[in-house]
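Retro notes, item 3 of 5
We never archived the inputs for the 5-O-phosphono-beta-D-ribofuranosylamine complex last cycle. Fixing that now. Sequence and ligand:
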Amino acid sequence: CRVLVLISGNGSNLQAVIDGCDDNVHAEVVGVISNKPDAYGLVRAHHSEIDTSCVIAHQGETRSDYDIRLKQAIDKYQPDLIVLAGFMRILTDEFVQQFEGRMINIHPSLLPKYTGLHTHQRAIDAGDNQHGASVHFVTPELDAGPVILQAKVPIYPEDDATTLAERVHEQEHAIYPLVVKWFSQNRLIMKDGAAYLDSKPL
Ligand code: GRF
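Structure as it came back at the time:
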């Protein structure tokens, strides 16, 4: 299974996916694309001798023009699976539809709660006592595709957004490689807007 990872920043989830693609898993990270030239994830990719590309938005470029260039960059890698790992751009519907059932994202909340940004602070402000991360198939509506796997963490009274983010990140690194593994084993599909593992609805 050829896996392509899209990033904008640190790439700790990229690292977890790279590390998870060991000899027992029929998946290989064949490339990393960033929209930011200084993303630390690009350094991680180089350390693992993985090919990288940058697709940087031009000033005044429309979303659809950017997404056309992104699609061209992606096609060079002929991926089976596209893994969004902190890729901080909103994608056009047309772009997303081209990769239906083949593109996944990780979001730092227990979806459907807290789509969008600042999820850790929002969970604290709401007085929640648990929080977490979700891996989901990407559909045109932001952070709204069918959930594949979630990990929960407690929220403690002394938490701030930083301590909570750390706890969530640790869980992200456990669940994202597992989902990639399932996909590479052909156990995971999206059909009629729902996710299935081993033919059972998730
Ligand atoms: C993670 O919190 C992920 O849930 C969100 O972006 C962050 C990426 O972190 N989508 P990293 O770059 O993988 O360290």
